[in-house]
Task: inverse folding
């Protein structure tokens, strides 16, 4: 078997990954529509993510133990998946926020560099 064939990902795995990413991106769209672009500190993102993880945990436990004392529909595989997607989407939102921060810092460095100072020499002219 060739080296490439050994590393090939089965088409079922790619399909499942593609479906998961589609669901996560769709959830990111819903989050942005509801909350707008969010730019929080890392600590605040952790709090948001842990709240979502708590909801995922609740869904898993209620599904496993079939326990739902207050009658609210938190359990079931549909809810487990929904909460897992929300956790992944919040983690993705954190990464997006960090990327925006890095891009803004990079842009600021470029704008402050001598090449972008606006002097005639920065445009190929003589100072």
Result:
């Amino acid at each position: 078997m060739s080296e490439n064939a050994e590393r090939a990902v089965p088409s079922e795995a790619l399909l499942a990954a593609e479906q998961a990413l589609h669901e996560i991106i769709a959830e990111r769209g819903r989050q942005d529509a509801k909350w707008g672009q969010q730019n929080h500190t890392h600590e605040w993102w952790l709090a948001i993510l842990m709240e979502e993880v708590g909801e995922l945990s609740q869904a898993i436990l209620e599904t496993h133990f079939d326990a739902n004392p207050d009658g609210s529909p938190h359990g079931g595989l549909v809810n487990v998946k929904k909460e897992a997607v929300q956790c992944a989407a919040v983690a993705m939102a954190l990464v997006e926020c960090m990327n925006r921060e890095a891009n803004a810092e990079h842009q600021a460095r470029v704008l402050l560099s001598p090449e972008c100072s606006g002097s005639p020499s920065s445009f190929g002219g003589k100072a």
Remarks:
- Confidence is low (pLDDT under 50) at residues 120-127.
- The first helix runs from residue 3 to 7.
- The chain has one domain: 13-110.
